[in-house]
Amino acid sequence: MPTIGSAQKSLSAWHQAMAVATGGKVFTTHECSWAWQPARRRLVLLFPENANEAGLRPGLAEGTRLGARRIEAWINSGAGGTGLHQAGFRDASQISWHAGNPSPQWERWNGRVRLGIDVPEAQGADALELKVANLWRDPKAAGLTAGHAALRRVEHASARTLDGDLVGRAFAQQSIGGEVALYGLAVASDHRRQGAGTALLHALAHGMTNPLALAEGAAPELIAAGSPGSAEFFEASGMRLLGRGRHMVLR
């Protein structure tokens, strides 16, 4: 059963995988774990237990050296943020963790969803980030030790209309506890509330799960970090509110 702790570990693994897959790196500074994602020139601090000057100062200095345009931090909702506030971080939109089995009853979408990274329309950072779906297939190229959390299986799904127009995409990663963690689920504004997002969710949930387990009636368990705008979607999909976390940005 997923917990806030396992959800946080899964999100850390996702950011680390995204960093390495796009030519970045992961590093630590005095109890602070960082992921440098060069595709978006973003430095991410991942759930520090004790974010103090000794860990923040060298990490932020490295971010400056790398040319980070955005520096953000994810922390537990119960963790103190004094050190982060003193360093200039401010709270952004609160995240809500959702978990559970997707509802088996859902209105089918009149389109197609496919797993894979064949997305000719993807450009810039979007195109580079598709590489994260191949990272687990070639662990030696990643430069990480075997068993590293960032090397867990990742799949990408795209949603297209029957005319072939790309209208949505999402990623899924095998989480620390064995659940399927969803990331980056997005649908074009003029195609929302038509079933494309739900179709992506179900396609990834079933594509990432052992078919034999499904045949025995075991539905896939999902985890997702929702923004205020997406929380309603995850709840409508049959997932329960697991808890909340904090997302901070250096101003």
From TrEMBL:
<keyword id="KW-0689">Ribosomal protein</keyword>
<dbReference type="InterPro" id="IPR016181">
    <property type="entry name" value="Acyl_CoA_acyltransferase"/>
</dbReference>
<keyword id="KW-0687">Ribonucleoprotein</keyword>
<dbReference type="GO" id="GO:0005840">
    <property type="term" value="C:ribosome"/>
</dbReference>
<dbReference type="InterPro" id="IPR000182">
    <property type="entry name" value="GNAT_dom"/>
</dbReference>
<protein>
    <submittedName>
        <fullName>Ribosomal protein S18 acetylase RimI-like enzyme</fullName>
    </submittedName>
</protein>
<dbReference type="GO" id="GO:0016747">
    <property type="term" value="F:acyltransferase activity, transferring groups other than amino-acyl groups"/>
</dbReference>
<feature type="domain" description="N-acetyltransferase">
    <location>
        <begin position="117"/>
        <end position="251"/>
    </location>
</feature>
<dbReference type="Pfam" id="PF00583">
    <property type="entry name" value="Acetyltransf_1"/>
</dbReference>
